[in-house]
Amino acid sequence: MIRVRFAPSPTGSPHIGNIRTAVFDWLFARHEGGVFILRIEDTDRARLVPGAMEEIMRDLRWAGLDWDEGPEVGGPYGPYIQSERVDLYQKHAEQLVAEGRAYHCYCTAERLEEMRKAQQAAGKPTGYDQRCRYLTEEERAALASESDTFVIRFAMPTSGQTSFVDVVRGELSFDNALQDDFVILKSDGYPTYHFASVVDDHLIKISHVIRSEEWISSTPKHVQLYSALGWEPPAWVHPSLILGPDRSKLSKRHGAVNFSTYIEEGYLPDAMVNYLALLGWSAGEDRDIYSIQELIEKFTLEGITGHPAIFDAQKLLWMNGVYIRQTSMNRLAELILPYLQKAGLVSEPPSDSELDYVRKIVPLIQDRLKVLSEAPELAEFFFREEPAYDPKAVQKWLERPEASELLTKVVDRLEELEEWNVGAIESAVREAGADVGAEGGKVIHPVRVASTGRTVGPGLFETLEVLGRDRVVTRLRRAGSSEQ
Ligand code: GLU
Predict the structure, then answer these.
(1) Which residue ranges form the domains of the chain, and what is each CATH number?
(2) Nearest Cα to 20, choosing from 302, 247, 295?
(3) What is the CA(308)–ligand 1 centre distance, in A?
(4) What is the pTM of this model?
(5) Distances (CA, A) of 411 to 148, 405, 448
(6) What is the mean pLDDT of residues 229-256?
(7) Which residues pair with 310 in a beta bridge?
(8) Is 252 a catalytic residue?
(9) From CA 6, how far away is CA 22, in angstroms rounded?
(10) What is the pLDDT of residues 428-439, one digit of tens each?
(11) How far apart are CA 339 and CA 467, in angstroms?
(12) Which of 124, 249, 252, 342 is catalytic?
């Protein structure tokens, strides 16, 4: 049975890289008919951020990455929050101590600091000098009676190599002599990441550990723990790091890295999942747009690439635009509503006529919209009593003697119309142009600037139809009479 886990630490807001890992886990589980597990790794008590766990769960749910076992869902191997499993880690750590594979270490922070300084001064690699590993029984008893705190360290083999097969990279080997006797249980009784992760991956029956490349260097420690505990390790899968366009590790310098920023800006869940799936995985096709169902069908571990994935914010933006254009009008109206409300353009809750109006606007802005948060800017002039006039556009198209005459004629013609629809509006506007001897852009631009405040926007006649006769006439009159 394929069982994979996403194991975030609630130490802050999930970033793009975290959710990319979750996407890979989820797609692999769904492709294989396996189980996707969420496990919260909160044993580093000093780095806990209140609310981070909730944010992780919110982000996953938003993206549609539903977990089969984990917090709020339960499952046969719970609890799935590590701080609720501390006794399990303690039990296994003491078992390793009893078997001589781990030991209590009484070294104080001061001693460790001195040791580190001395190692640095001597130009040696820093690492625990194993003082407490080789204590005699008497020395150990004496230290234990003097000090009430200790940590448990793992006794790494001091020679030879630790090798394992990474599904993406093949066989990797690490010199044991370069590995530290790392801490597995801290003085506060909580396990370190390495230990908790191994104990849980075993007890929760994880078949594949999928996590980003930065954890490769920890894997020899994990492999040694598995062997000391007498357990079979899972398959190791380390997709590449995500880099910025300058090929350095993705960071704030490259723009937003927190996943929630993309939610707020109005990216669509499926677009995000589609984009993240392609950061370090490929179906071997020259293609970018995949429905979630297609991703599930095509996602195999062979497609995970060992070379770095480059985060391209422009491509994500483009992809989101594609998804927005695939969204039905009614759905898109629902999606942009909160953004319009936040901008104060629509009331909360909206009236029926406001909803109706928003639905009419959607087809006019859908093509230009790349993220939902652009909707207020694109649609503002539909709502404001008076549109925000672009001074350059006004100067170019309205501050000319013939503009006022044209707009007056347009208003006359529009007021006479029996039917308010695109065809009738277009004829009326063009006829008004003919009345004053103008045509084409010389008619379209002044009318557009007068009614929307700008020179670019959706089709003029469609826009006028949606704006409605009252708004249009008021705006054209005002623009035609004022010395703009
Ligand atoms: N808690 C680790 C993290 O935050 C998980 C690493 C792993 O998947 O083993 O990334």
Answers:
(1) 86-237 (3.90.800.10), 252-327 (1.10.1160.10), 328-377 (1.10.8.70), 385-484 (1.10.10.350)
(2) 295
(3) 19
(4) 0.94
(5) 89, 10, 13
(6) 92
(7) 243
(8) yes
(9) 6
(10) 999 999 999 999
(11) 20
(12) 252
